[in-house]
Design goal:
Elements (H helix, E strand, L loop, with lengths): L1 H22 L2 E10 L8 E8 L2 E6 L6 E6 L4 E2 L3 E3 L5 H6 L4 H4 L3 E4 L12 H10 L2 H4 L10 H6 L1
Parallel strand pairs: 1-4, 1-5, 6-7
Antiparallel strand pairs: 1-2, 2-3
Length: 154
């Protein structure tokens, strides 16, 4: 009996909590876009409800209220894309807004490939400078820049 009552109580509380959460206004609703969920499946027309910095739900939110509604009919809506091979190192340092990537849907960039534009210690700086010389790139050309052309001809 006690288990049954606690089960009923939990169901009522949890159920009411879900109803209250669904009735609360969202910050943003993206309406009527073709949603691609990142699983590789076909897109489907749906609304995306956002509260704070989280997606609160995907489905039919036609009757829900929001501070801002975005009409996404005839547009694709998807999760942020991850750029696994970013070449934005210098551009992000110059302008951290990354507009070219963001406008393509990229929200995460992996960069560095063993190198970083971040803080360098003295040993790292020396190695980078050494690797930028012709002697490193063309070890057979030890006589400097003037000899590089001759090296290519031999």
């Amino acid at each position: 009996m006690r288990t049954w009552l606690s089960s009923l109580f939990s169901t009522v509380i949890i159920g009411c909590g879900r109803i209250a959460a669904a009735d609360a206004p969202f910050d943003i609703i993206i309406k009527g876009g073709t949603v691609y969920d990142g699983t590789g499946g076909e897109g489907h027309v749906a609304d995306v409800a956002i509260r704070g910095d989280r997606i609160a739900g995907v489905g039919d939110f036609a009757k829900a209220s929001a501070k801002k509604a975005i009409d996404a009919r005839a547009l694709a809506v998807g999760p942020g894309f991850i750029n696994m091979l970013s070449w934005s190192n210098e551009s992000l340092i110059q302008d951290g807004r990354s507009q070219s990537e963001i406008r393509q849907g990229v929200t995460t960039e992996i960069m560095g490939e063993g190198e970083s534009m971040g803080p360098l210690n003295d040993r790292m700086k020396e190695r980078i400078v050494r690797e930028q010389t012709d002697e490193f790139i063309f070890p057979q050309c030890r006589d400097g820049v003037a000899a590089v052309t001759e090296c290519f001809l031999t």
